[in-house]
Specification:
globular
Length: 170
């Protein structure tokens, strides 16, 4: 693989640095909602920025490209985790916040996070992209590579499941 040099490399570095400063925290938040682990979320986002640098000259909209790459990276991590559980039959610890986060988050927020974590991956991705990244249905569809009708279906099912899970909070 050839490495960029000269003005192309400088433009890529400048562009990626600007995107990193503006988008890193939001992308980590999005990834964390999807993979439920801060360390893995940070790795997914860092991998996305490395890939952005490699593909800078071919990327039209870096923001959309990064979101799609983060969602796909999170999906890959979840897939590998599921395969590991199936093949190794290792019991996974329950999905609870670490002790320091439990102190900081209200009980209601923990209940919402637990309900979100219980959703199937596609539904969780749609909800996270809609309410965390504030994307429109068409932007979510482009990010996930599905139709806007599928986005609406997944959103409707997710909101229904969340309503049932969170009924006790009302």
């Amino acid at each position: 693989m050839a490495f960029m040099t000269g003005p192309d490399h400088d433009a890529a570095v400048t562009g990626v640095e600007a995107r990193f400063r503006s988008d890193y925290r939001a992308l980590v938040g999005l990834a964390r909602l999807l993979v439920d682990d801060l360390g893995q979320a940070e790795e997914v986002v860092q991998d996305a920025f490395v890939a952005l640098h490699r593909h800078w000259s071919r990327v039209g909209d870096p923001g959309a490209w990064l979101r799609t790459t983060v969602v796909n990276g999170a999906r890959g991590r979840l897939r590998r985790k599921a395969v590991g559980r199936r093949h190794l039959r290792v019991a996974e610890p329950p999905l609870t916040a670490p002790p320091d986060e439990r102190v900081l988050l209200a009980d209601d927020a923990l209940a919402v996070l637990a309900a979100l974590r219980a959703l199937p991956h596609r539904q969780r991705a749609v909800v996270a992209l809609r309410y965390w990244a504030h994307l429109s249905e068409s932007e979510i569809a482009a990010t996930l590579g599905i139709s806007t009708g599928s986005v609406k279906t997944h959103a409707h099912r997710a909101m229904g499941a969340l309503a049932v899970s969170l009924e006790a909070l009302r």
